[in-house]
Amino acid sequence: METVIEASNLVKQFGSFRAVDTINFSVRPGEVFGFLGPNGAGKTTTMKMIQCASPRTSGSLSVFGLDPGTHSHEIKAMIGVVPQETNLDTEFSTIENLIVYSRYFGIPKEVAEERAEKLLDFVQLTEKRDVNIEKLSGGMKRRLILARALVNQPKLLILDEPTIGLDPQARHLIWEKLKLLRSLGNTIVLTTHYLEEAERLCDRLVIMNNGTILVEGSPAELVRDHVGSGIVEAEHSPEVVECLSHMGISYEVTGDIVQVVTDNPRLVAQELLRKCDAKQVLTRAATLEDVFLKLTGRGLKE
What we know:
By secondary structure, this protein is α/β, with parallel strands linked by helices. It contains 11 helices and 13 strands.
């Protein structure tokens, strides 16, 4: 199979509001494909159409070559879903959440119990196997939801903001598990508005805004093609702006900062300090945030 997911002119409309507006994308077997964008960009709505939880308004969509509108049962059997919300059953213990969930897939009890033990070990929750859900930390709950999504040994794993609200240590542990799953050949689709998450995990991604796809490519390609290798930042003052204009250097003003996109940040920084009398100058690598800012004029977390 050349693609796991194929979308063409995909639209989702809620009354007069178009949440997803004529998007096109494809996901290849064995890759991590990301949807990056701010809240309200259309990422979660797209995920719900893929996982057969929300019918599309128009356009075409296939998952494993099947139409979610007519083959939802077959598709759901082959996917695992990590939703944005924490929806574990608080009446059950950690391991019971996995065993009970396995019934939805008709997994025999003995197989479910053995698989649950292995999954708890995989997400490092074995010592919490008999603990009630309400006594788990936020990071532990997210790891358990990941384990639950793997109960049916899915061919496609869908994660909607998998590390939302987690501290850095818990986030990195989730990343470690996702990287391991990818190394084992799993196809993963995720949504995020965390730049570092997208850059570390995704082979390819799309940046979404207002229901549309702005660009598609690998993180490195998007930064290189739309921004460049480096950013130089200085305080926004009339003197700095006049000096840059006099030197013919293009710049953008963001709040109280002047930004220069360049493939030679060291040289530009030296010029700012020497010729423009800039008091504070910072050089850094360009990021996906810079790509989004250039394309939309606003940040990913706004």
